[in-house]
Amino acid sequence: MASEQGVIAFFGATGGCANACLALTLKNGYKATALARTPLKLTNMLKEQGIDEETISSNLDIVEGSISDVSAVTKTLFPNNRLVSKIVFGIGGTPKLQLSLLTPITIDNPTVCTDGISSITKALSDIREQNGDQGKPVIAVVSSTGTKGAEDIPIAFKFWYHGLLSVPHNDKTNMERAILSASDVFNGTVIVRPTLLTGSQDISSADQSKLKVGTEKNPAIGYTVSRADVGQWIFEQVVNVNSSKWIGEKVSLTY
């Protein structure tokens, strides 16, 4: 299966969900690229996941840079002058407190997810303009339950998500809109909406047997889900298949 899929690009792989997915991707013999501000941090995280040095050096190309650098994003998407087949996007901001009664929790970059998708769509457009038709990749993004218009969270979470955590959730909402408005550069989108993320990205702790999966029309409603399970779901349902049945869906994941 791995030899048929092409290279898989990762953004935000030093975060929990995308890191778990990348670890499984490498463990199963796929070639991958990953954008990382600190490559050594990513390498160490993968070693902690049980991925050996030889696998990392032979199957993973790490591009040093940030998601705001379109040239670095382009290198991640176009290794060896060939477009990647799939993209896993797990970029997120770092939470921080601010002096506000209504929104006491914000993130260090309130538009990091939306801006990241803009960088990717710009890079894909540039690649097509400069190199001709290279095909289009499928993209899977880690969003969140509780985005605007989605009835996929328990009542107890509504004030917390739409009030206290409105800044990061607004970014996720705008990110989803940006992806859907750039459908001309993607061969399909899978928007993954996990509920409150818990636990580590350790793939040995994943347990898909208790995972509930829903769609925007019929959401799975719950309180928490582990980063490892979200990463494994993305690997099994998007990366490790020729054609995902979840293309075009907004998928809620929870316990």
TrEMBL record:
<dbReference type="InterPro" id="IPR036291">
    <property type="entry name" value="NAD(P)-bd_dom_sf"/>
</dbReference>
<dbReference type="Pfam" id="PF13460">
    <property type="entry name" value="NAD_binding_10"/>
</dbReference>
<feature type="domain" description="NAD(P)-binding">
    <location>
        <begin position="12"/>
        <end position="238"/>
    </location>
</feature>
<protein>
    <recommendedName>
        <fullName>NAD(P)-binding domain-containing protein</fullName>
    </recommendedName>
</protein>
<dbReference type="InterPro" id="IPR016040">
    <property type="entry name" value="NAD(P)-bd_dom"/>
</dbReference>
